Amino acid sequence: MIRKELVQWKVVTDRLLALPIASDDDQRDVMIAAIESILDEREQLQPKIQPPFSSEEEEFGKDLVAVEPRVALKLEEYLTEIRKDLSTSQTKKDSVRSYVNPYSKVARDGTFYDTKQ
């Protein structure tokens, strides 16, 4: 008989793996909230999964451990997508800022150097 915590861990892990990567700004916030919720559920389940394990639970656990690299890869994909969106957002902000004030980065120390001599 497999403990319900192990089964719940598998269900939560499957939900995390099935979560789509959203590129839309509105969907990204929903995606981040869902990821945080799922990771919180996993964190709460982890202390409840303690030895001793039956042979059936050990086999089930081997399957769960085999899925963890896929979970790490999926989380890395989410992180990459979020970083890319943040970078794009920062670039847009810089573009707007330089358009509004094109001389903001010009040194204003009052000196002029004539390069032609």
What helical percentage do the residues reach? Answer: over 70%
Q: What is the mean predicted local confidence, pLDDT?
A: 88
Q: Please, how many domains?
A: 1
Tell me the span between the first and last alpha carbons.
90 Å
Q: What structural class do helix, strand and pairing data support?
A: mainly alpha
Number of helices: 3
Number of strands: 0
Write down the Rg. Answer: 25 Å
Ranges with pLDDT <50 over ≥5 residues? none
How does this structure look, described?
This protein is mainly α and 117 residues long. It has one domain (4-88). 70% of the residues lie in helices and 0% in strands. It is built from three helices and no strands. Helix 1 (4-18) packs parallel to helix 3. The termini are far apart. The relative contact order is 0.13. The mean pLDDT is 88.
Give a quick summary of the entry.
The protein has helices spanning 4-18, 25-45, 55-100. It is mainly α.
Descriptive labels:
single chain, 117 residues, mainly alpha, rod-shaped
SSE layout and pairing:
Layout (H helix, E strand, L loop, with lengths): L3 H15 L6 H21 L9 H46 L17
